[in-house]
Protein: Urea ABC transporter ATP-binding protein UrtD
Organism: Ramlibacter cellulosilyticus
Amino acid sequence: MTPDLMEEGARRASAYARMAAKDRTESGGRHAATGRPVVPGEVDVAHGRILYLEDVSVSFDGFRAINKLSLDIAPGELRCIIGPNGAGKTTMMDIITGKTRPDAGTVFFGSTIDLLRYKEAEIAQMGIGRKFQKPTVFEQLTVYENLELALKTDKGVRASMFFQPDSADSDRLAEVLRTIQLADSVNRLAGTLSHGQKQWLEIGMLLMQDPKLLLLDEPVAGMTDEETARTAELFLTLKGQHSLMVVEHDMSFIQAISEKVTVLHEGSVLAEGTLEQVQNDERVIEVYLGR
Ligand SMILES: Nc1ncnc2c1ncn2[C@@H]1O[C@H](COP(=O)(O)OP(=O)(O)O)[C@@H](O)[C@H]1O
Ligand SMILES: [Mg+2]
């Protein structure tokens, strides 16, 4: 256990306690706007949305990176987000995960959790997992140890000091290993994996925490065609059990996984529909060809 990890565990554990306290003291366990009970760790999707953004805006030095952005995602949905560089895709993920505060607008997780009231660590603890573009696995640890670590981090520092995986943990670990197709590589050092395998391992680490919503920023960038195809399969198995928001430029990948596609441009939604619909949309064609 490194000091870094202990710190991370402590941060998460206290975030969770604060979260519970916040819901108790500010709303008596109920959200004022809806009167529904708020249970940390549970998301109310009775209204058919796991994520809801309305009129969200943020400016950096006077430049509006996100401009009255509205969008929602259904439970279990796999939503693809496309759009030219600078459209605001990564900034949107920064807002959802609490890394960036918007100047205006509404961001809800389910129908009761106002994400703008929470900090980045609290939001992660609530079940929103984020995969950044570059893989960030622990290269000197084995595949197994990386996944085990993700489990420990989730349990908080006190629990993790005496951590022994119980049978439910072992089952979960085995299931994740199968899902990410690394069951044959459990004892390999993560540093020896291919770029694609490292990306899958990192997704596996997120899965160990059983996130309700997964945000993935350009997950197949730098992958071989075969790795890209296997990643498409992986995402198709994840959808339904988790909600996914996937930002990608690779259109063959989008084609393989997409139902509904949202096109972002200049910080707002330009078009939404099937991939075919948005690809035939005049405004979308103009945005892509006009560059
Ligand atoms: N922290 C920041 N400070 C200043 N400008 C930023 C910051 N984050 C993003 N931007 C700007 O906001 C715009 C949207 O960026 P980004 O969300 O990264 O776009 P995308 O991911 O769609 O390529 C870009 O013009 C970018 O330069
Ligand atoms: Mg980006």
